[in-house]
Amino acid sequence: MPVTLKEVAERAGVSRSAVSRTFTDGASVSVSMRRKVEKAARELGYSPNALASSLTTGRTKLIGLVSNNFHNPIFLEVFDLFTRGLQDRGLRPLLVNLSEEVDPTNPVRMLRQYSVDGVVVASSTLPPGFSKAFRDAGVPVVHSFGSLSSAPEVHVVGIDNQEAGRLAARTLLERGYTRVGFMGGPEFATSTQDRLAGFIAELSAHPTIRASYSFADAYSFDAGRKEMLRLLKEEPAQAYFGGDDVLSIGALSAIKDSGLDCPKDVGIIGLNDMEMARWNNINLTTIRQPIRQIVTSSIELMAATLEDRDRFPEARIFSCTVVERGTLRPALKA
Amino acid sequence: MPVTLKEVAERAGVSRSAVSRTFTDGASVSVSMRRKVEKAARELGYSPNALASSLTTGRTKLIGLVSNNFHNPIFLEVFDLFTRGLQDRGLRPLLVNLSEEVDPTNPVRMLRQYSVDGVVVASSTLPPGFSKAFRDAGVPVVHSFGSLSSAPEVHVVGIDNQEAGRLAARTLLERGYTRVGFMGGPEFATSTQDRLAGFIAELSAHPTIRASYSFADAYSFDAGRKEMLRLLKEEPAQAYFGGDDVLSIGALSAIKDSGLDCPKDVGIIGLNDMEMARWNNINLTTIRQPIRQIVTSSIELMAATLEDRDRFPEARIFSCTVVERGTLRPALKA
DNA sequence: AGATTATTTGCAACCGGTTGCAGAATATTT
DNA sequence: AAATATTCTGCAACCGGTTGCAAATAATCT
């Protein structure tokens, strides 16, 4: 059904190579030849088969976009930015949903079968083993929103989750809270671990502060709500660092339903600054993660790595900022 | 770098065809041969190149997943369900972001270059011209969440938006509202037009009801908020059918900020029943769209159409239900 | 104009697989 | 055991392009 190179060549009365060259830029074709071929191509409605050409060029322009975060609203924006950014560079995102996948073997095989030029891992929860498995398969990898190690083995772009944890702790201290809590996401998520570590590290310099830690089952409204209801039954802290915004909003709902007031009785600070956080019936104080910059930078890094496949792995860190809203009491006067 | 068929054949000491057959099911290979080949393949870490084979088989198992709804939280779930559902059938979603695209030419070309086996258009706002353009390119198309015409030219799976509009109108009538409004999404969106048409149709049977219509700039919180603020300045209706949930939540925020109470002063019914609608600090009465069923059915329909490419276009309609929450006053006693 | 150099062009082989066909190897039948 | 029917296997051509190489054309220089 689709028109092939050969048909165009025949109609234009030239060789197949000539047609091929008119459609590969940088190739040597005379203007007259180009005109002839383009005319024939137009009349036939020809457009070259990217897959066939990938066979010889070794480039598909396919980029695996793998994620397992299909329940966090910020990731819709992440996908939006990634797809547009990749498209703008002529790259095609092959979306891979890794929810419930524990072993990288299958995804790796699949991505190799489709000869992707690179893989973007967009996930805050996938263990680094996945990225490494892709790299070991010889594919350039950028892990966005990943956790950074001191010696990155693949490119990582994101925030420093430990620093975010420290920032959360500092913010709570500034507000004069003396009993604080970390209400994290699922314990196995890399982001949770890192944020907790930072949170603890910062507080360790303040021995007078009482701190507690617990984990919700998932990064979800219900999990946050459930966990906060549990916490409120016993002696709750004065303020919590919620694992992320969705979780924090769930916690907020628990607080209100328990007849308590936020921030008067219990304070909350979230993380992400997702769209809903600023909705005025939520109005969540939170730590903002610069998503747009992270995605843009990830795409640039991927493009650069496609050029130079031996590029040394690097970590690109973006800083977070506190977004003041209504779920934490004001800072103490200095 | 990657291992090829030939290398496996050499190592196993057999012909290339033999190796190929081992990896295509339904092909005739003896057990001893299969064992030999599989051993060699395992040792070399071979897995067949799907793109190369697509050249001769004519099937890539690539499915274009095209959408322009990257700001509506329900679409995150839609993408989740689609990617998993497609993956489960061995199909690979090639994600295409059509935001800001007004002409189907480029996307069509791109999808043809990558020889997708089919296209799923997942959008409630794209005009039918896009689906038709894909179909005209000879690719099987399923338009999910699309608007249905009486004579579908491509497969359409979704709700009957007109019926949803009627349902909204009926619901408002049941509650005894006599001055009602339609606060739609952007006027050009197909879903908005259909919902409005149904809303009007239902009310036309009730000449005593005063009805008004207006449109927000987008399906977004801010647009809904802005439009409701505008409406509240003049003489507002007693209750509104909000174009979708996000819009309705924006409207809700405007109502509260204006010192009014919902549902006491102004009622709202949304559409979609997205996750946040049930968050208790929102608690939006809304019309539920059965997303999961729509996606599942779309995938089945796509799979069936891949089998029989001449399948006659059909429309699959799922019904909506009202989800009672807190933004509409109770129904009148009968 | 003739020699020299730079551009174009077509040939043919190749990218990594698949598949119709015919001969070889097995299995089944009588 | 011979004849017949089945199942396997390799050959070679093909899928839709690309590209090194050498011949053919065009451009530039004396």
Automatic annotation (TrEMBL), chains A, B:
Coiled-coil regions listed in the entry: none
Transmembrane segments: none
Every HTH lacI-type domain range: 3-57
Keyword match S-adenosyl-L-methionine: no
Keywords attached to this entry: DNA-binding, Transcription, Transcription regulation
Transcription among keywords: yes
Family annotation (CDD domains): HTH_LacI, PBP1_LacI-like
Single GO term (MF): transcription cis-regulatory region binding
Gene3D superfamilies: 3.40.50.2300, lambda repressor-like DNA-binding domains
The protein's name in its UniProt record: LacI family transcriptional regulator
Pfam family, one: LacI
HTH cro/C1-type domain location: 4-51
